[in-house]
Amino acid sequence: MNDHEMSFIRRHLKYLVQNDNLSVETFHQVLEIISDKAIKQKIKQDFKKSQSYIETLNNFGIINLDKKVVAIIKDKEKRQQVKNTHFFDVLSTHSIVENLLNRVKKKITASITYSIFLVLLAMLANKLITSRVLPKFQQFYVDANIPLPEITHYWFEWNKALISPSVLMLFYLFFATLLLFSINYLTMKQLMSSNSKRICFLQKIPYIRHLFFRIDFIFWLSHLREASKAQLKLTECLHLLPGNFNNVGLDREKLLYQLNISENVGQLTGEISYQIENFDSMSQKIIENYIYRLIAVIMLFISLLFSLIVISSYLPIFQLGDSI
């Protein structure tokens, strides 16, 4: 089952729940999008056994909830203390995360692709200048008994070294291409899996890792909301789902203070829903800022590279005129 099919299922189940049309029949109709007949049959059998939409979809990675939370919700469902209407909130959170992920992929892909093009252009210019232009200048300067400008001399010698500008540019191209493929082919299923090698790789990269920490935190808030809707107290929810506030720059004490007050007035679930929407809005702005910074760092590197190439190639011309 691919990411497109899972997105389709989440989206249409959300519509059905919103219009109060979710039933076993409509659930099976939505599952017809799955091209793999074996998986489709397994999902239907799992649902027949569990009689829980959330547990079935969670088992097959279509939604992502902590198994402890799913067990609590299922227990409350059996006692008819919770309805499947809170299923809508789970699907809504996945829509938020999916939109964030697509925004991150689009922005990073565009900036990395542009930088790869510029670095390839710089490599071509550097190869042409160091193999064709600078050797002629060097020979002319030797014949005229005039020393090459220091910058040109160092640049020429650096290009002969083991770690030359071309090697550094090749290293950048390798890393940028690896990052591009890791981001571009990242799926919601991999995002929801803590064991995914692709996610582990992305979470080690400065700037980018903070974006994925924020997505993880939205999932954590979603788990917290579902646990609270299953009539657990806030202290029980936090004990069940300890969250990491350090990676997302939130004031833990302030947030927990607000949630405590909301619980006292009977609006804990509503406040968590507000915090999810607010955090999503903040994350969108932060994504823009992080991408602008990433582009600025890349452009600074490329600008310095082009500046050195231009200075090292044009300086001999100007200095030759002064020497004559």
From TrEMBL:
Record InterPro entries: GspF/PilC
The keyword Transmembrane is annotated on this UniProt entry: yes
TM stretches of this protein: 108-129, 167-188, 290-315
Assigned keywords, A-Z: Membrane, Transmembrane, Transmembrane helix
PANTHER family reported for this sequence: GENERAL SECRETION PATHWAY PROTEIN (PTHR30012), TYPE II SECRETION SYSTEM PROTEIN F-RELATED (PTHR30012:SF0)
The name this protein goes by in its record: Type II secretion system protein GspF domain-containing protein
